Amino acid sequence: xxxxxxxxxxxxxxxxxxxxxxxxxxxxxxxxxxxxxxxxxxxxxxxxxxxxxxxxxxxxxxxxxxxxxxxxxxxxxxxxxxxxxxxxxxxxxxxxxxxxxxxxxxxxxxxxxxxxxxxxxxxxxxxxxxxxxxxxxx
Length: 138
Known about the structure:
Blueprint: E1 2-4, E2 8-12, H1 28-43, H2 48-53, E3 57-67, E4 76-86, E5 90-99, E6 102-115, E7 120-121, H3 126-136
Antiparallel strand pairs: 1-4, 2-4, 3-6, 4-5, 5-6, 6-7
């Protein structure tokens, strides 16, 4: 199942995230994406506490960052969760960063579901599919 979403998270670039070139150091983009996805999960009722109740965790197995334009100190960026694809055991999220309405960065992150109690890979639970499906239906 794949569908667009309407979730967006806003953040402002801080001093310690900028390198000697005056732009955001590359590794911060994955951190920004993680913050946006945590907000997205919470917005659909999938808080960290809910993950614990479900005996569920997700691990990053692949991440891609495509840089279109740099972000600089004090820039306020909007990070949109553009698309969610739910596989049998995986969740793929496509995010787009916008500065003043212009795209600057695209991030794709693939997670695999696993059960913390025994460390085994599992299918994405139906309750997670339902929560994410409800968030992606217009």
